[in-house]
Amino acid sequence: MSQEGEKKPETTNFWQQLRTKKQDKTQTEVVSIRSLFRYANTTELFYLVLGTIASIAFGVCLPLGLVIFGNLVDSFIDRAANLCSLNFTSLIQQYCPSNVTLTSTNFYATVSLCNITKSTFAFIHYDIKSHTNKQVFILIIIACVNLISGYVRVILLEISAERQTRTIRQILFQSVLKKDVVFFDTHKTGELSVRFTNDINKIHDGIGNKFGSVIEVLITFISCITIGFIKGWKLSLVIFAFAPIVFIIAVILFRIVTEMTVIELKAYGKAGAVAEEVFICISIGFLTTVQASPYFQALYEARVAAFGIWKIVDEINNVDSDKGLTKDDLIGEIHFSNVYFSYPSRPDAPILNNLSFNIKSGQTVALVGSSGSGKSTCIQLLQRFYDSQLGSILIDGKQINEYNLKWLRKHIGVVNQEPILFHTTIRENILLGSDSATNEEIYEAAKMANAHDFIMTLPNKYETLVGERGAALSGGQKQRIAIARALLRDPKILLLDEATSALDYESEKIVQKALDQVAQGRTTLIIAHRLSTVRNADKIIVMQQGEVVEEGDHDSLMKAQGIYFDLIKQQNLCQFEEEEEEELQLEQNEITKLMSGDETNNDLIEQVHHKKTIDSATQSVISAVYGMKNSLAGYKLHENDDEKKIAIKERKKNTTVDILQMNKPEWIFIAIGCIAASINGAREPHRLEFCNDFTIRRNLLPVIFID
Predict the structure, then answer these.
(1) Same domain, 644 and 564
(2) Are 561 and 578 in the same domain?
(3) 561 lies in the same domain as 589
(4) 395 with 403: CB under 8 angstroms?
(5) Given 3, 447, 700, 704, which residue has the most CB atoms within 10 angstroms?
(6) Do 284 and 392 belong together in one domain?
(7) Kind plus residue range of the DSSP H or E element containing 493
(8) What mean pLDDT is predicted for residues 366-385?
(9) 603 vs 595, 610, 647, 649, CA distance in Å?
(10) Range of the domain at 696
(11) Are 364 and 492 contained in the same domain?
């Protein structure tokens, strides 16, 4: 027995489940057929009209051909009907010998045995040749029209579709380039690539040859039904009512009609011809609609795909708007006041929480804090990738959303952690910062970014190709080119988002020197991964969970020994751990090389002694800063590493025999597999040899028999 108070499972009947499915089913949004051709110009519409006319002509050819073919069949039926009307008994008695019998089936074969003259035969003479030649000539004309209209339809509609899809792809690409970051956050990865490929290809199919096929099928269906009702409307109604059955019995019915006896032809000659034409036209009409399902599906998929593309194109682009405030000069004062923000893709996760700080014109301010504290979000808000939900962001005392977006971004220079370079020359990559810049301005920007010297050492200098994503350049060189690109527009506000975090120590020093130089005289906001790079900042703002928790310069924050002090200490320890991990990775690579025999024992011993010297120096520095306990903790793991590497070097090299010995328990399966592989390899040559021998012996058989 079930426990008291236990709920019984809810049961639903079939109709409730069906109703639930209907409610859950979302309606697919499509555009109208007319909307598919919204980007067709006059030439493409002209091609479309001609292609449509050709499709109509192509669709009419089949039912017309059926009518002519029916008339051709009528010619034979009329001839047979004339024979069936003769009195063969009277003809035999008057004109034929006693041993000759005339019937409708052997009339033309035995009539020459009888004494029937041409004048006597005239009343039954039927000129079938003249009747059939006329019908065949019309069929040839229809075939020519069918060929020409089909060719013209495909050519014109495909040309029109190609031109239209090229225009759609260009418009979609331009529209995507003008979208803000919110658009890319709210669309899944890969969705845009699907729009550019699959969806546009579906539109191409829907407005190209398959669109003509849809028109052709509709015209064929209408023509066949019309002809069927003209030839025999009563029979057409019956067939139309039982159309599904027609598909099943059509073949049987055709065979029955062709095997009718002479008596049936005599009585129903004309009716048989009419019935045949009606059956053919009605069945062909329905058959074409069944075969046309892929074309209708392509048209429907094109309408669905066009809905998604038109939606993207028709969205309002704030980036391309001409509205907004512009000024002759931008001072560069920035003020965040009680700003609240969460990303549109994650509205339930607040990023900035009552954030407030000020940046004066010409100041260099650094934002520091743990990951997820909202540092990069501030830079994105200043570029107006997003708008804050609450609070205000002021630039020169004006709301940031009051400025014209293009004008604002022209006065902001951005250098990100990973510079984006295009597969073109250095000059053109820098020129992307300002299209109207001269060569002198490009050189000056490169000099300010400490990039001019290394560019001039390259073979082609500023015309050197940087490779795919700048693969031909080092990380520091790419970053300096990105800085030059940002400086080319002479920005009043410079945003540096961890610009040196991905560089090695030497490159970081060079790039940091360039950044310190270009920051002079500009309002600079820095997000730094390495806190050592922001020691000289005018102000350091410490953020935590979207709020400002500390603010001041480096010295004052270190004296306060607060969160900034803890971050400095923690980063030093993390940096030490990263160096340890790099050393471990290096040791693993060395072990791999030793096992492959790429180094000599002398090189190994020299590397070990060199590493011990570096380790001793590093241990002394860490001991002085953090104490002896911390310095020894990380080195206990490396106590016997060098001795282990020497022992590994002294070991015997692994060979194929050693590998086979490790697989000794499976030697039976390995042997069977090798034997089977050998047999399989010899199978093809033996088969060819057998076929060759068989062919030779077969060719010798006639010679043997002759001998």
Answers:
(1) no
(2) no
(3) no
(4) yes
(5) 447
(6) no
(7) strand 493-497
(8) 83
(9) 14, 11, 14, 11
(10) 654-701
(11) yes
Q: For 46-68, what is each residue's pLDDT tens digit?
A: 999 999 999 999 988 888 887 88
Q: In the chain, what's the furthest Cα-to-Cα distance?
A: 143
Same domain, 411 and 373: yes
- For residues 422 and 510, state if they share a domain: yes
> Which position has the token pair 């063969």?
88
CA–CA separation, 499 and 534 (whole Å): 12
Q: Enter the tokens of residue 659.
A: 């590998």
What is the Cα–Cα distance from 79 to 57, expressed in whole angstroms?
Answer: 33
Domain with residue 136: its CATH number is: 1.20.1560.10
Phi, psi of 354 (to 5 degrees): 60, 50
225 belongs to a structural domain: yes
What's the chain's length in residues? 707
- Residue 612: pLDDT band with limits 50, 70, 90: very low
Here the tokens at position 254 are 């055709």
Residue 336's nearest CA partner among 400, 415, 416, 412 is 400
pTM confidence score: 0.57
Q: What is the dihedral of CA 49, 55, 59, 61, to 10 degrees?
A: 100
Q: Which helix (H) or strand (E) is 376 found in, with range?
A: helix 375-382
What distance in Å separates the CA atoms of residue 216 and residue 148, rounded to the nearest whole number? 14
Query: Taking 70 as the threshold, does the pLDDT of residue 214 lie above it?
Result: yes
Question: DSSP string of 293-355?
Answer: HHHHHHHHHHHHHHHHHHHHHHS--STT---SB--S-----EEEEEEEEE-TT-TTSEEEEEE
Asked if residues 603 and 566 have their Cβ atoms less than 8 Å apart, the reply is no
What distance in Å separates the CA atoms of residue 113 and residue 110, rounded to the nearest whole number?
Answer: 6
For 150-174, write each residue's pLDDT tens digit: 999 999 999 999 999 999 888 888 8
Q: How far apart are CA 627 and CA 636, in angstroms?
A: 15
C-alpha 134 chain-centroid distance: 56
Q: Are residues 49 and 67 in the same domain?
A: yes
Is residue 120 situated within a structural domain?
A: yes
Please tell me the distance from the alpha carbon of residue 283 to that of residue 275, in angstroms, as a whole number: 12
Instruction: Give the residue from 525, 627, 619, 497 showing the smallest Cα distance to 569.
Output: 627
DSSP labels for 218-237? HHHHHHHHHHHHHHHHHHHH
Sheet holding 412-415, edge to edge: 412-415, 493-497, 523-527, 364-369, 539-544, 547-552
In the chain, the number of structural domains is 4
The conformational region for residue 324 under phi > 0 = left, psi -120 to 50 = alpha, else beta, is left
For the stretch 23-43, pLDDT in tens is 444 456 778 888 888 888 999
Query: Is position 324 within any domain?
Result: no
Distance CA 364, CA 539 (A): 7
Mean pLDDT, residues 198-212 taken together: 86
Does residue 497 belong to any structural domain of this protein? yes
Phi, psi values for residue 88, rounded to 5°:
-65, -30
